[in-house]
Amino acid sequence: MNYETANGITADEQGQIKNPGQKDLEAMVAQGSFAYTSPEGIPIQLRYVADENGFRAEGAHLPVAPPIPPAIQRALDYLATLPPTTERPFNRPPGRPF
């Protein structure tokens, strides 16, 4: 589906069912884009995908998170190498709140 409005908004979207008929794997997926001019005169263009992983949008006007600092990334990489634990968080006795 695609369209353009009288005030210059354009949109385009395609969608389909992923894994049709497969229980617990069937999902609706869609991808598309839209564009318009902001009240400040800035052209806005957005592309998106919506699927079993959620809605993900891209556009030059959207904020981007800063990069992870190297020391934090090293810590995350190290933690990812550790085996899983069966220990309860904070070593709390069962049934005891924070």
Overview of the structural elements:
Keywords: Cuticle. By secondary structure, this protein is mainly beta. Helices cover 12% and strands 38% of the residues. A five-stranded antiparallel beta sheet has the order 1-2-3-4-5, with no helix packed on it. The longest helix has 12 residues, at 70-81.
Structural class: mainly beta
Gap from first CA to last CA: 52 Å
Number of helices: 1
Low-confidence stretches: none
The tally of strands reads 5
Which strand order do you get reading across the main beta sheet? 1-2-3-4-5
The general outline is extended
Largest sheet: 5 strands, antiparallel
Give the helix level as a range of percent. Answer: 10-25%
Beta-strand fraction estimate: 35-45%
Radius of gyration: 22 Å
User: What integer is the average pLDDT?
Assistant: 89
What sequence of helices (H) and strands (E) makes up the elements? Answer: EEEEEH
GO molecular function: structural constituent of chitin-based larval cuticle
InterPro entries: CHIT_BIND_RR_consensus, Cuticle_Struct_Prot, Insect_cuticle
Pfam family, one: Chitin_bind_4
Keywords: Cuticle
Compile the SSE list and pairings.
Layout (H helix, E strand, L loop, with lengths): L1 E3 L5 E9 L8 E11 L5 E9 L2 E5 L11 H12 L17
Antiparallel strand pairs: 1-2, 2-3, 3-4, 4-5
Using brief descriptors, characterize the structure shown:
98 residues; mainly beta; 5-stranded antiparallel beta sheet; 5 strands; Cuticle_Struct_Prot; cuticle; Insect_cuticle; structural constituent of chitin-based larval cuticle; CHIT_BIND_RR_consensus
